[in-house]
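Moderator note: this is an archived Q&A kept for reference. The question asked for a predicted structure of one protein chain; the sequence and the answer are reproduced below.
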Amino acid sequence: MATPTRCTILWNNIADTKTYSIYSDGDSDYPATNLHDNDIHTVARTASASAARYFMVDMGGSTSYDMIAIAGCNASRAVAMYAGSGAGSDPTAFANYAAMTFSSVTDCGVYYWSTTQTTRYVAVRFTNTNLSYCQIGELWIGMKMQFHVNPQIPIELIRNVETTELITGGGQRWSYENYKQRGYGLNFKEDFSPSGAGSFASLDDMYYNLGNSLPFFFHLLPTDTNDPPLFVHNVSYDFSIDGKDKRPGRWTVEEEI
């Protein structure tokens, strides 16, 4: 992994109290309300993927945002996905779609705008008919928070290792490990100076507000291995010198699974 220059967080879903829907062909067993319940295991689905399908949010009025994030998605790199917005509620008439730069791996993805968008409606579109259905676990919209993670390289954590053994016909025993849970331990030496709406004044402030249970989206940029964004929760942090942010310290997060 290359040394990231910044970390991006979306911790405040401004669409949380807004109206979520599926256009069209929603599956009533997997309703759109599951898109903002902080649980990637309760998903929203379409009944099929035979044509373009849209997961939509009606913000109720013109609203500013610069980041969209999804988790618990069944997309892959072969699926064309888009973010769009418009003045009307019919997503097929949205004029300005921008290709979302989702991770090349299934599950999580984020899209950033360099400038703030202001619209009422937001949609995420699936266009791959090879799927049996389209699925998203969490769909968040908000203002990103960014801060530098320089100069120390983060250490990737992998937890919840499952070991599976296989015995061949000749009696040979083989085993492999399935790594289920990812995360990062970030080492800081310099100031925690976040930018963006909703930024916390300090890591102490962020940790106090989010605690160990509230999930949020977390993404390191840039990297040379296309590391995906993660839907994470706090594990621990230790900044032990005189209560300031300009000091050595470590902050650890791990993936929601």
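Archived answer notes: The first helix runs from residue 203 to 210.
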